[in-house]
Amino acid sequence: MGKSILIVDDDPNLVVSLEYMMRQQGYQVRVATSGGNALLAMGDCAPDLVLLDVTMPGLSGYDVCQKVRENPAWFGIRIIMLSEKGRDVDVNKGLAVGADAYVTKPFSTKDLVEQVARMLGG
Questions:
Q1: CATH code assigned at 44
Q2: Backbone torsions φ then ψ of 104, nearest 5 degrees
Q3: Cβ atoms < 10 Å from Cβ of 4
Q4: Which of 27, 28, 31, 108 qualifies as a FRET site for 42, CA 20 to 30 Å off?
Q5: Nearest-angstrom CA–CA distance, 89 and 73
Q6: Confidence of residue 122 (pLDDT cuts 50, 70, 90)
């Protein structure tokens, strides 16, 4: 079975693009459109990696990342935060709550695919 990715973003156009790209790389992909739904999806079946938008209604990406890092059952999950917020303070906050990487939008899809592959040992 291939590695699994959970895409968490409320932008349907970006979700479709990310989902397509990751499936093309052979990953199993699930989607959540809110932070709350992401945590529910992870409770059902923990992914290997989460592509996590920062700005969402309800729980923010920062909140979700922090909750993932507080749960010992989710210890090995890699998290790449995606955000249009690219100031140093935003990036530092993402890394401080436990993100493995912070990528600002717009981003190079090729670079993101390579970063995912590196994190998942591909």
A1: 3.40.50.2300
A2: -90, 140
A3: 18
A4: 108
A5: 29
A6: low
